[in-house]
Amino acid sequence: MINKVVANVEAAIEGINDGMTLMLGGFGLCGIPENCIAALVKKGVKNLTCISNNAGVDDFGLGLLLQNKQIKKMISSYVGENAEFERQMLSGELEVDLIPQGTLATRCMAAGYGMPVIFTPAGVGTEIAEGKEVRRFKFNGEEKDYLMEHAFESDFAIVKAWKGDTQGNLIYRHTARNFNPMMAMAGRITIAEVEELVQPGELDPDQIHTPGIYVHRIFQGEKYEKRIEQRTVTKK
Amino acid sequence: MLDKNGIAKRIAREVKDGMYVNLGIGIPTLVANFLPEGINVELQSENGILGMGPFPFEGTEDADLINAGKQTVTLLPGASIFDSAMSFGMIRSQKVHLTILGAMEVSEDGDIANWKIPGKMVKGMGGAMDLVASAKNIIVAMQHVNKAGESKLLSKCSLPLTGVKCVKKIVTELAVLEITPNGFLLLETAPGVTVEQVQNATAGKLTISEHVQEMVI
């Protein structure tokens, strides 16, 4: 059995250097690789290009890397929760590519599925279509324009899962799943931090969301804060 | 004139039994509070939920269970969880029957702008561009005029577009309108609102339906 376990988070992010492109899982603060992000802040790598749906909040998630001016470019779909992000973007300090959420997800998926391009209708006729090839296809009962978008490539993908085994098989929990499975498949090197690391055989093969073939390094994380951005409740 | 809940209440009447529905952030999320009695509907959340339920009771919030607006939610019996690629796959392949979202501006051709005010507000488009480019049925919940009293129903949008020629129906605090090859068509006025008020508030081309009536909420 192939063992993917690394000793700790420092070993997990070994080889991540200045100027690299990283994919980071998570939707808002849900399912983010908290330990790796903290370790990247500590390591001080800079000029990073980060592909991640959101930018965390000012003082948590990717917001920590932004605060520390470690990110050169963000590729995201929504950054509204982070005022520092918006400020850096509007001032020109931070390069930003805002792309449709579905396009972001599918460009990661394409990379993981070995397809160099995808065609999507999202953004046709808007400013994000500028400079992109547009093709008309007859499909699904209608004829319409599609934008050609390229698969994302990254030096490292950093994902967070609920459970994983020593072979790198991963299971996600609830909406902490989001972008993690596609990014795990797409990363040139994939790092997985899990809440619980188990032995091979403990995970039911039918329940595995990400087969271990996609994961290069796995470790059990600790002290997950799992912050809630908007605690909304129903009154009893 | 309707308030946010009024707009949501009127839109909820458009939701039919057996529909899979995506509700955007803002007023559209309120639609969930007014779904008609006795119909079965599943709410889709773009971050990976079918069968999204109401907010949890205090003390039972789960950090791993949020909606597209990053609010804590619950799951109804029969709910399913999936990843973001599958989520947008079901949106793009039109398995989601109805999309309800907000707008800053809509044009008489059905163009919609709701993601960017250049130099001021650039939060990002999130799933909006995917939704408007794919959905067969799009209902927009929006304010008819802005705080300065200027119309947001225009002949051409001035703000960066989210999608082109995609909006079919709009509900505002003043009216229910459809987009036709002839521009905006007024179908219903809000309680207490006159046809003339709607005309004055609409900068784009507007025709009045011969069956125009007051909204029944």
In whole angstroms, the N-to-C terminal distance of chain A is: 51 Å
Radius of gyration of chain A: 18 Å
The largest beta-sheet of chain B arranges its strands as 4-3-2-1-5-8-10-11-12-13
Which percent range fits the helix content of chain B? 10-25%
Q: Describe the biggest sheet of chain B?
A: 10 strands, mixed
Number of E strands of chain A: 11
Q: Low-confidence spans of chain B: pLDDT under 50, at least 5 residues?
A: none
Element pattern of chain B in H and E: HEHEEEHEEEHEEEEEHE
The ordered H/E elements of chain A are HEHEHEHEHEEEEEHEE
Number of helices of chain A: 6
Percent in strands of chain A: 25-35%
Topology:
The complex is a heterodimer of chains A (236) and B (217).
Chain A: H1 9-12, E1 21-24, H2 34-43, E2 48-51, H3 63-67, E3 71-76, H4 83-91, E4 95-98, H5 101-112, E5 117-120, E6 134-139, E7 142-150, E8 156-165, E9 170-171, H6 180-186, E10 189-198, E11 217-220
Parallel strand pairs in A: 1-2, 1-8, 2-3, 3-4, 8-10, 10-11
Antiparallel strand pairs in A: 5-7, 6-7, 8-9
Helix pairs in contact in A: 5-6
Chain B: H1 4-12, E1 20-23, H2 27-30, E2 42-45, E3 49-52, E4 75-81, H3 84-92, E5 98-102, E6 105-107, E7 112-113, H4 128-134, E8 137-141, E9 153-154, E10 169-171, E11 175-180, E12 183-189, H5 195-201, E13 206-214
